[in-house]
Amino acid sequence: MWNKSAEAKPSSQASDTSVPVIPAPPANAQQTPSAPVAPPTPQNSVQVNPIVPSSTNVTTIAAGLKISGEISGATDLYIDGETQGKVRLPSARVSVGPNGRVQADIEAREIIIEGTVLGNLKAGERLHLGAASRVQGSILTPRIAIEDGARLRGKVEMVRSGSSQSNSSAETAAEVGKAKAMSASGKDE
User: Fold this and answer.
1) Do 87 and 130 lie in a common domain?
2) 82-96 and 76-79 strand pairing
């Protein structure tokens, strides 16, 4: 039927109707893609979740992205890029992916390292070092898991679950200073 009406118009106006016939299919084409545009959005958000097996609210610093400064908040964080400064998410999970390179102190409820971290780690519940992880700095946590192949250079202090968060900032600052002095001297105690 569409072709019949298009054929009827060209016989009335030979050169002018061929131009309007061309815009008519794009109008239908615009209506057709608008329906598929909505489904890809949920598919994209579904693809983000498998990367980080955590809660639905996860912020991602992707590979190729560099962040400098202080990061704080309450949502989980996945770092696969470069981060410098301080990361403070006391009620969330911080994961450093295999491409992640972090030069920062990290404070979080749960810390999972698969990449490289230069800085002190303070986990409220647990800390996990993956097989490809490289960590240099002090660790303060009630529970720790270290896979074969992980590299750790620094001090590990096991604390009770509640006391990890109740340490005074003066004590933490003193420990950070000691750890940096030890790292600078290159001597392990």
Assistant:
1) yes
2) parallel
User: What's the predicted TM-score (pTM) here?
Assistant: 0.59
Nearest to 166 by CA among 87, 90, 75, 86: 90
**What number of other Cβ atoms are within 10 A of residue 10's Cβ?**
14
Instruction: For residue 158, give its domain range.
Output: 62-185
How far apart, in Å, are the Cα atoms of 96 and each of 76, 112, 169? Answer: 11, 6, 25
Q: Identify the pLDDT of residue 188.
A: 47
Q: Examine the pLDDT at 160 and tell me if it is beyond 80.
A: yes
Q: What angle do CA 70, 151, 64 make, to 5 degrees?
A: 45
Q: Tokens for 124?
A: 């409220």
User: Closest by alpha carbon to 97, among 87, 109, 111?
Assistant: 111
- The verdict on residue 13 lying in a domain is yes
Give the pLDDT of residue 10: 52
Cα–Cα distance measured from residue 120 to residue 187, given in angstroms and rounded to the nearest whole number: 17
Tokens standing for residue 70? 């202080």
DSSP result, 134-185: EEES-EEES-EEE-TT-EEES-EEE--TTHHHHS-HHHHHHHHHHHHHHHHH
